[in-house]
């Protein structure tokens, strides 16, 4: 019987991963036959092609190599993840290992110090990470060990579609706006977004706009009480955002489009542009369970990852909104020096290891937070994602630097502006009131 060479390579790779994890020192106390139980709260899009490898080569590989640790893992995605995590925190029932954000999306865990500072656990391993990945987070300490560096804004471009219509990749907003009539005549939308959930516009588009038109210094001054959201730089950013709808660049249908529905729309050529985070790349790559891809590898060279074209009046140029990535944290309720603490750290080490980061690089799920993580198995679109980081700078993601009490009204206000229900000035005033209420509550 002949074995498929790809399968053989896969088995060998899996065996090497299991062998590596097994080299770690067992955590169960000497003479104890009782395994350590860890509850894990994980963020996972089960519809993504990356999900299969994540489960098989990350989670199950760890379990096979660590029979002395039993994982009770709960996977959630999108807003339900955040809502349930807040409920866990309010009830004082946080899982032992938690997927979390470096800032506002996980502000409760940071500011109430519900998770441990991981800096003392790192030791010499710290040198293996990019410096930006280990910067203090929202609570002033390293609450989670990032699995990635994340650009929350990417302009995905179907260059093949543009070429077929005789249109160039735009470098300025004026050039993008000028394309609207031709795209409409061809029955196409201009920019797609899956913005039914209210976080999408703020995180993947508006944060970039504020970074370009106001700059991080302005946000720093607002947080220091030296400027206000009602000042011209922020209002100007809101006005430009409104102009995207007035100019036909964005359609109000984005608010009726679910986050995952947009994947198929873009892959099928509904529009030449998609705005989303860099993680969206993984949805277009080959699904290992089916061998199929929304964008087949032989067509991926037709797609480019870039940033929104130059905006009139911008003070910062060619930037995306960027943060140290999400990662895994350890509950502060785990006793210091305990077998459970050693087990939790062992899991976090594995989840941020070069081997696991290589898997996430190959699936497009995350760009590595560790240095020198590469792969020769990248599909063309994953290679394009790696090149993207060589071409752009980064500014704040607003829901990373603002508390949920502040960015929540902004998220809603951005939807209201897009739907014609609020003006930029009204939303700016609402966000400023929310900031003042948050300050008063601290």
TrEMBL record:
Organism the protein comes from: Geochorda subterranea
Protein name per the record: Extracellular solute-binding protein
Taxonomy, superkingdom: Bacteria
Pfam families listed in its UniProt record: SBP_bac_8
SUPFAM superfamilies the record matches: Periplasmic binding protein-like II
Gene3D superfamilies: Periplasmic binding protein-like II
PANTHER family reported for this sequence: ARABINOSE-BINDING PROTEIN-RELATED, BLR3389 PROTEIN
